[in-house]
């Protein structure tokens, strides 16, 4: 008796056509797949209204000259030509990068060191961890107000401490030479706990076997940290670096509350310049062009950081 074998081949459904499997399941009608759009529609509308539309409108504004109470006038790329020939914008970029580099490196170094210390067992370790992360819980504006009083050259407590120790007082945020490092000190104080928490979580997940082997081989503490702990922690450090870089690039509240971009323009970063152009001088078209260029800059830096992160995985 001959046996006939019938081969069935699965074919992909055409665009817009309901898959055969969906049609064959009881209770699934021809409009089953299309019903998913009812669930996705609210989120899609929110994304379009909150994210997509503002960026499209900002791009539209950057091509116009627009002041409150007046109509808009088409200027094309004139705002961008003005932007790239504006020396103030060039200096604002350099100050932003200078501030961001310091505000990323300092919390990373101190956060990794703090995480290594808090990973060890000692008395009242939980209390010490809690106290250490308290600055991160405060609002940036409140932090800036407290530090601005401490930075006062005559009435501030920091200069009182320096003079009590026999050291010369500092101008802190009142000098163009020290204003950005001083602002970085505030950022470091507030956001080092975040880096510590990320790295501390990485330390808790590290395997024990490499450390036991290093102990048997007689490796010192520094050798163990350099050749075992640091390479294993590198992916977590990169994550902390990405988060801190994005936060530092968009930092505004601390700088504005403490210095308002001063003294002069010594701490005028891109965010401060953007605020001044939009809400002090009412150059909304020019401010929109600054937003677009700054957005492209952040995208480029984020892409580089994500590429570094991919290489660490």
What does this structure look like?
- The protein is mainly α and 313 residues long.
- It has 2 domains: 30-79, no CATH class; 86-312, Orthogonal Bundle (MetI-like fold).
- The chain contains 14 helices and 2 strands, in the order H-H-E-E-H-H-H-H-H-H-H-H-H-H-H-H.
- It has a two-stranded antiparallel sheet.
- Helix 13 (270-280) runs antiparallel to helix 14 (284-312).
- The protein is globular and about 75 Å long.
- The N and C termini lie far apart (60 Å).
- Mean pLDDT is 87; it is low at 1-16.
Which key terms come to mind for this protein?
two-stranded antiparallel ribbon; single chain; mainly alpha; 313 residues; 2 domains; MetI-like fold; disordered N terminus
Order of helices and strands: HHEEHHHHHHHHHHHH
Strand content: under 5%
Helix content: 55-70%
Q: Which class of the largest domain in CATH terms?
A: Mainly Alpha
Kindly report the name of the CATH homologous superfamily of the largest domain.
Answer: MetI-like
By DSSP, the count of extended strands is 2
Across the major sheet, the strand order is 1-2
Mean pLDDT: 87
Number of domains: 2
| CATH architect. name of the largest domain | Orthogonal Bundle
Structural class: mainly alpha
The third-level CATH topology of the largest domain is: MetI-like fold
Q: What's the story with the biggest beta sheet?
A: 2 strands, antiparallel
Uncertain regions spanning at least 5 consecutive residues: 1-16
